[in-house]
Amino acid sequence: MSKKFSIYSVSISGLLSWQIHALNNEGNEGNQSLTRRFYIIQKGGNEPEYVNGISGDMLKHIQAEHLHRIALESGLTLSAGGKQFNPDRIGYDIDKGLPIFTDKDTDLAAKTAKVLQLCTISDLEGFMVTEKKGQTLKRESVIEFGAVVGLPTYVKTQSYFHAKYGVENPTPYNVQVSSGLYATVLNLEAFRIGYNPHNFGYSIDAIQRKQRLDALLKSVLYTYMQPNGAKRNTHLPHPDYFEGVITVSTRRCPAPMLSPLEESYNRQVLSLAETLNNLNGEGTIRCFEFDSMAKFAEQIQGIIEQGQPWESENAEALE
């Protein structure tokens, strides 16, 4: 049986291929749909390059949607807003005057503890709400996404004519779809699951923290397996390649991450892991490489089976 290890943070550096997709549009100009694009600047380049991409906001929404389904399926605690997948999460409950706090819950530590105990999505995805009496409750997200950006010369956006047919007056318009190789990065701070920065302690027990960690990792897997977004009814993406490395830190040390916009990203991440292990002790960083979606799923499964939420009685920094 594989040895268990604590998870302080998790990072993913990945290179994925999505063919013929229109996942993230910025809107329309006349009868032309406009796809999301970013400027990037690479070493040695003469000028910024304009590439197709998918915003981090879109990826975060996709992941939160999968997390919501997993939480319902697994019976994890959710607020009324969380159960409805309301974007305000716990804020919905507070605005509706639902019984969340008692008269004894007067300070930020007590109120934050109640929110963390009550709502898995608010804990993992973050929240900010101002009560009518003026006190602001907030929490940074445990998971962080970078934009998914196309590699210059390896991504192409094309526009083609399309007509929406009806009984009368068919509407012609131009649709933009993209294909190519994309760089993706994300970071997950597992040590903050259930953590209350106002009293430097955990507001839920180790069993619940493990359940939430597993749900979060599973939602990341589902995000790349099924990237929901725009125009999937007729432009369902063709995912045909995924490679990269998942790094896990077991001590107070960032899990290394490097964008696949750098060609040698994989080798550098493994080298960084070796250096950090030399500095902080063997086993500080664990690396899980993958060269396909199937292998990525297998590595996530292994991390779920072996990983335990990192915990310490020593204070972490305030958010």
Break the fold down into its secondary structure elements and pairings:
Elements: E1 5-7, E2 9-21, E3 25-29, E4 32-35, E5 37-40, E6 49-54, H1 56-74, H2 80-83, H3 90-95, H4 108-118, H5 120-125, E7 127-130, E8 136-139, E9 143-145, E10 148-164, E11 171-188, E12 195-196, E13 201-202, H6 206-225, E14 238-249, H7 265-280, E15 285-290, H8 293-306, E16 307-309
Parallel strand pairs: 1-16
Antiparallel strand pairs: 2-11, 2-14, 3-4, 5-6, 6-10, 7-8, 9-11, 10-11, 12-13, 14-15
Helix pairs in contact: 1-6, 6-8
For the record, give the distance between the C-alpha atoms at the N and C termini, rounded to a whole number. Answer: 38 Å
**Main β-sheet, in a few words?**
8 strands, antiparallel
The number of helices is 8
The total strand number stands at 16
The arrangement of helices and strands along the chain is EEEEEEHHHHHEEEEEEEHEHEHE
Average residue-wise pLDDT = 89
Structural class of the helix and strand makeup? alpha+beta
What is the gyration radius calculated from CA atoms?
22 Å
Portion in beta strands: 25-35%
**How would you sum up the global shape?**
globular
Low-confidence stretches: none
Percentage of helical residues?
25-40%
